[in-house]
Amino acid sequence: MNTIAAMNTITALEPGHLARLARLYVEIFNGPPWHDGWTEAVALERLSGFAAVPTFWGLGQWHGERLLGFALGWGERWVDGWTFHLKEMGVAPELQGQGQGRALMQALGSGLRERGYQSINLQTSRGSPAAQFYATQGFVDLNLLSLHKSL
């Protein structure tokens, strides 16, 4: 295991972390398999919008001042309790496949249970490495249809 990855901490994300979060977001989602084309300014706008949701919560994985990974989203009241919508999750590309994502998901699950959440929902592309990762973490395909319409 990478020495940096082996000596990290996981803490709640704060508003002051958004610029570093945007930089890592761009690094992750502009690379394979996504190739999205984010700029830091647009990523910061997206992430700031998420952070403005009253039930926003997220975790950052750190090695000193370096952000290595993150998991974030917000809660929604549903008929049988609170569910957490995991909007974004990622690990620095050079650390993927080394257990960092698993550690983040375990910490996220523990933190959400402590906050009274009953479930986590997320969306990702079928057949992607992310879908395979989430399946190993106990997520199941709900066979829901995600729709989009350009305006």
Walkthrough of the structure:
This protein has a five-stranded mixed β-sheet. Strand 3 and strand 4 (81-91) form a beta hairpin. With 151 residues, it is α+β, with helices and mostly antiparallel strands. Helix content is 34%, strand content 28%. It has one domain (3-136): 3-Layer(aba) Sandwich (Aminopeptidase). It is built from five helices and five strands; from the N terminus they run αβααβββαβα. Helix 2 crosses helix 3. It starts with a helix and ends in a 15-residue tail after the last helix. The radius of gyration is 15 Å and the shape is globular. The longest helix is centred in the C-terminal third of the chain and has 15 residues, at 100-114.
How is this fold's topology laid out?
Elements: H1 3-6, E1 9-12, H2 18-29, H3 40-51, E2 56-63, E3 66-78, E4 81-91, H4 100-114, E5 117-122, H5 129-136
Parallel strand pairs: 4-5
Antiparallel strand pairs: 1-2, 2-3, 3-4
Helix pairs in contact: 2-3
CATH architecture: 3-Layer(aba) Sandwich
Largest sheet: 5 strands, mixed
CATH topology: Aminopeptidase
Q: Looking across the biggest beta sheet, what order are the strands in? A: 1-2-3-4-5
Low-confidence stretches: none
Number of helices: 5
Query: Whole-number radius of gyration?
Result: 15 Å
Strand content: 25-35%
Number of domains: 1
Structural class: alpha+beta
Please state the overall shape, judged from the principal axes of the Cα atoms.
globular
Q: What's the CATH C level?
A: Alpha Beta
How far is the first residue's CA from the last residue's CA? 46 Å
- Report the helical percentage: 25-40%
CATH superfamily: Gcn5-related N-acetyltransferase (GNAT)
| Number of beta-strand segments | 5
Mean pLDDT: 93
Sketch the topology as an H/E string, one letter per element. HEHHEEEHEH
